[in-house]
Amino acid sequence: MTTDTTRPSLDDPIAASETDSQAVTTTFDAAALYEDADRALGLWKGDAEDQIHLFRGEVVESDSPGSGRSDDHGIQPFMRLDGTTQISKTLDLPIADGTPVQIGFVGIEDEANQTTLQLSINGVTVLRPPSSQATPDARQYQELSWSRWYYVDIPADALRPGDNEILFSAVDGGVGWQIMIADDREATKGQPDPVELPHASRISHDDGVTWTQERGEYVIRLLLDRYVSVGEWVSPVFDAAGEQDEAIKGDWTVEQLQLHCAMDVPESTTLDLCVRSGPHPTTDDASSDGTLRDDPGDAPESGWTEWSTWKPGTPVAEVSGRYVQLRADFSTTDRRLSPSLESVTIEAQVAIRPQNKPRVAAAENAQIQRSSYDMPHEDPRCRQLRQLRVECELDAVVAGAQTEFETIQRLHRWAYHIPLDNCSHFPWNVLDWIDLRRGEDCSIELNEYSQRRRDKMCLYPNVVLVAALQSFGLVARHLNFHSEGMTGHEICEVWSNDHAKWIHLDATRDYYFFDRRTLTPLDTEEIHQALVERLDKVETWERPFLYRQDLDALVEDLPISYWDGDYEHAVNSGEHGAMFLFRSFCHFRVIPRFDVFSRSRPLPVSQGTEVWSWNGYLNWADDQVPPLRHFSTHSNRRADLYPTLNQTRFTAQSQQDGRQLALWMETTTPDFETYEVRIDGGPWQPTDRQWNWSLRDGMNRAEMRARNRSGVTGVISALSVVA
Fold this sequence. Notes:
- There is one protein chain.
- This protein has four domains: about 1-40 and about 230-355, Sandwich (Jelly Rolls), CATH 2.60.120; about 60-225, Jelly Rolls; about 385-640, no CATH class; about 650-720, Immunoglobulin-like.
- Strand 38 and strand 39 (about 685) form a beta hairpin.
- Strands 6, 7, 9, 12, 14, 17 and 18 form a seven-stranded antiparallel beta sheet that branches. Strands 1, 2, 4, 5, 22 and 26 form a six-stranded antiparallel beta sheet that branches.
- By secondary structure, the chain is mostly beta strands.
């Protein structure tokens, strides 16, 4: 963002005696528009690109809700495709426009498979030879017994609008292929109500002479290389009067606004820019905790205008104050084309009322980053979490902790040692997983291990850790990651108020990664960046780095390390230690909600036992590790997967000739209860979002924070001024 101002000098007594006028021009380039956005849905901007455009990549599927390995051993997730067996999958495609397309499917090849798959798409035949022939550099298909995603190019003109039938069979009836089935009995798990069963898969055991309905949906998808049809961008609220970065603002009013946009809008596409303004930095549809209200009509009156569409060449019709927010609506009816936005310039005519302002001695003000995705947060007082905290005596576990981070570490250690018994992929009822045993002294027994890696599949102890943290009002979530050629891993991430950031935790080994220089604990995206900076090429499934780079050199002199603790066995000991896992940090994804203990659905049928196939994930991607084509939702904006939480941002405006400050606060605090303010080191007091601060002569200091209903206090912002 760049800001230029032109105004009369206040040294002129005549000019200073009256309201001055100032022209303020603020320009946002594409990078600032994209990275700092409050919302960027269905959009993308690569690092090397200078414009924002619609996301490119569409998935057509009907299998996601039931795909995975069932907890019911009688429901097998794969069927063999050999002999006279043929399978049919029908997928509806509203628009067929000749864009490049692949078929993606989940399968398993037998060791030393020599059988070719035959695919027929609306009668057009395509062959997929065994991986040893088709993709010799993609050795994961030959060396790993785990299920994988397969991709097959098909002629674009093979598709047609409406129903498209895809047939699979083995050439000459050969043996060697298994295809995943998403069983209808599992489909309720992966989708909300109302549950829909497409009945779009059939099977024949006599070379296609007769057909019967399959028990579910084959995990077969159309992957189209074309733009999504719509996208939305929303800016944060900003100060058009030119004092965006000032700790204390003057009594300035924006009287007129003019917008200029650099954009490209090809035929069959649209890009509509909308604007609204207000006298205060929080909009009518934002609640105290920073979330959007379901009914903005219930919001207190703050004077913000409604959204209005900007018409090029004309000033903004209605201006209600110095604070402005923009929205851009992208759309296309020709999916081969996208509108693009390069920059936005705002010209404001500002009225300035000269007055004294107190001198700023220090200002510590949070930068709030919001996710584009609405992720419902958990209620720490829900039945399962309350019961977990009581039955497992977690208050005793954290008793005496001196800091919040020590509380996190104690719960991390507990989740590593707590015995687990009969765990299931669904639902996440952690109380059913925990094997609560007591010794002769009635204390809860904990496991000890002969190696650093604890027992049980990685999903389970880490979900137990998520639940334990959530029970104390600490925001935590499950995350999984993998690289091509490796099976992957499931872990926990927690928001730390002490470090004002997200932290990657692994309860299978009780450790975390940290930055060698600052000693700050790291999140998954930061570990991912440490890996991809060492990749010699863009990562693809056709030629994974694991099979072409020196893996020992990959981990030499890393800028990150790991906390080892006081255990007998090191984190990096054994076959799958910390540095082995470091190679897995190419792709990662989250379930885009936190309320997994109070609301059991939707969740993936399984995680960690078969390749990830649920299409409800929010996936990270970037220039070095591009989007996985079989998933619909990706982002390369850090804020989307790592929104800042429990931070308070203030806006201060001088009043009464510098003897009073009006302050507005905003936060994104899950389970928000109140704001708190401490003046000059006194006691913390609850306060409203907007409050006035009368200054005394000399130094004045105000500290501000949010508190949730569990009593957890957030990151402190502070302002020190001399009046």
